[in-house]
Design brief:
This protein has about 450 residues and is mostly helical. It is about 70% helix and about 0% strand. It has 22 helices and 3 strands. The protein has a 3-stranded parallel beta sheet. β1, α21 and β2 form a beta-alpha-beta unit. The longest helix has 27 residues. The radius of gyration is 23 Å and the shape is globular.
Length: about 450
């Protein structure tokens, strides 16, 4: 009884601790450095630089304000840690509303332990913010549907649907893939009256999003012109499942074990869901199941009609809904079986978590060590020439006074992702190889 009523506090404490490991020690990479350098700009440059890129501005704006507390790596990443722990609490609250205390606690444990969630809790990116906004959106929709069952419209819930929907849109442009799921759910239920109310709330989200909506066509066009993701296939679907359970990359020897465990978990979950057909919780788990599978499938389909946009972290709420379903499935087992499964899961995750905490290969290379070396050995007029922006951005963060530049990406290639408007906002520009004065000496990286 104590575990069911107070256990969530222990889960949140453990989740918080796991997200602090190596937080200020691990080096940054291109995405981290991009966020830092953009958030350091004044607000007009920040907005213009973001508008030329592929993401909305909310995370960069929050990080910009957060930087008034300091700009140490630990402190900057701590923002994402807070958001991620709040998301664990959000999974617990949503699961408790849908399936009860036992399922909620188990879902929170899976979310708190998941390497995928811990990774993004330590990134200087917007994915923990996106997860929290989408959880709020899902919870508001559930509250709205509960009131619809008793034929009483919950206007407050619809207001929160609009607010959290707008926050999700301001967090990530792929949020639409998850925001559309309640519409599909109501269409399948043929609840057209409820759907019309939901559309009104979603119209409120778009109304709140109008200030940024003007920039979206340009961002979409930029993605269509150049984006790094490959067209997905069976391998990418398997990688998605692995990302949700153990995250990637993994040690080579552990990969078959992780794949076997992941597929076994998926099979058991599917069998339990099939067995639950017609139960009193069917509508609830059907909604969670749609939230788990529709966003990735939608991105998969769009990747064959548009530019490939199949990005696992863009559907981060789907991973949480998988954990929620697993918590519901396991909650129907005996307490001894639950304890056994949790011990097995915790032991199984030791390897991927340890590997993740200490990963220092591309793209998370030892940039700080390289920057320190160059500061000790480079002559005053030496120019450090990076062969791409992926190395330049982290090095610029670590040693902003080091004279350095980078080669431009091949025009029109999949790697040509850094827009001119963003470079203007950051006051940087690449240098073509034939423009480099080699007589002054330098280093190539």
């Amino acid at each position: 009884k104590w575990v069911q009523t107070k256990g969530i506090y222990l889960v949140l404490l453990i989740s918080f601790y796991l997200r602090l490991i190596q937080l200020g020690v691990r080096g940054i990479w291109y995405d981290d450095a991009f966020s830092i350098l953009l958030a350091r700009q004044d607000l007009p440059k920040l907005i213009l630089g973001t508008a030329a890129d592929t993401m909305p501005p909310l995370y960069y704006l929050i990080l910009h304000l957060w930087m008034y507390l300091g700009d140490e790596i630990f402190l900057l990443r701590f923002l994402s840690v807070i958001l991620s722990v709040l998301a664990v609490a959000g999974v617990y609250a949503l699961a408790r509303c849908l399936f009860g205390e036992s399922a909620a606690l188990l879902a929170a444990i899976f979310t708190g332990l998941a390497p995928f969630q811990i990774y993004h809790a330590q990134e200087l990116r917007m994915y923990s913010l996106l997860a929290l906004a989408l959880l709020g959106y899902a919870a508001a929709f559930v509250s709205f549907m509960r009131s619809e069952k008793v034929r009483r419209t919950n206007a407050k819930a619809l207001v929160f649907v609009a607010i959290f929907g707008a926050l999700a849109l301001y967090s990530h442009n792929l949020a639409f893939a998850t925001l559309a799921v309640p519409d599909i759910y109501l269409l399948l239920k043929r609840s057209l009256k409820s759907l019309s109310k939901l559309l009104l709330a979603q119209g409120g989200s778009l109304l709140l999003f109008i200030p940024w909506l003007l920039y979206v066509p340009g961002q979409v066009e930029k993605v269509q012109r150049a984006f790094w993701t490959p067209r997905p296939g069976l391998a990418e679907l398997l990688q998605l499942l692995l990302a949700f359970t153990t995250n990637l990359p993994l040690p080579g020897w552990f990969l078959p074990i992780a794949l076997f465990m992941t597929l076994s978990i998926a099979v058991v979950a599917v069998l339990e869901i099939v067995r639950a057909q017609g139960g009193k919780r069917q509508e609830d788990w059907a909604l969670v199941l749609l939230l788990a599978i529709v966003p990735p499938l939608l991105l998969f389909v769009l990747s064959y009609s548009l530019r490939p946009i199949f990005v696992p972290r863009g559907v981060i709420l789907s991973s949480m809904m998988c954990y929620l379903l697993l918590g519901w499935v396991l909650s129907k087992a005996s307490e001894r079986a639950q304890a056994t499964v949790l011990v097995v899961v915790a032991l199984w995750l030791v390897v991927p978590l340890q590997y993740q905490y200490n990963y220092d290969e591309f793209p998370r290379s030892p940039f700080k060590e390289a920057a320190d070396f160059l500061m000790r050995n480079a002559a005053r007029n030496d120019l450090v020439l990076h062969d791409n922006k992926l190395a330049y951005f982290p090095m610029r963060y670590y040693e902003p006074n080091l004279r350095q530049t980078f080669l431009p990406d091949p025009a029109g290639s999949d790697n040509d992702t850094l827009a001119q408007g963003t470079m203007d906002a950051l006051s940087i520009s690449p240098t073509a190889l034939d423009q480099v004065d080699t007589k002054k000496g330098g280093f190539g990286l």
